[in-house]
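User: Some background: our group keeps a shared notebook of sequences we're curious about, and every so often someone picks one and asks for a predicted structure to add to the entry. Today it's my turn. The entry only has the sequence so far, pasted here. Could you supply the structure so I can complete it?
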Amino acid sequence: MPTIAFFYGIAIRMFFNDHAPAHIHTYHDGQEAKFDIETGEMIGGKLGARQRKIVQRWILMYSHELNAAWTAVRNDETPERIPGPDADNDN
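Assistant: Of course. Here's the predicted structure to add to the notebook entry:
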């Protein structure tokens, strides 16, 4: 399960050969959630309201890169890291 981004303490991961729809897994402060990468909607789990908004905006900003990452993990390939919206350059 590669980490494709990390920002504001939120780890963004994708599982190899995961089920549809295309989605990401988020991990923050003991909470886990899944987000649909086409719609940006949270489709499972729990995440604080502030973190949820940050993730949803990030999904909209990087939808092309997220779709490429989804294709990679579905093909058992390691996806490229995607930058976060913060300034720490921890991509």
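Suggested note for the entry: The chain has one domain: 3-75. The longest helix spans residues 49-61.
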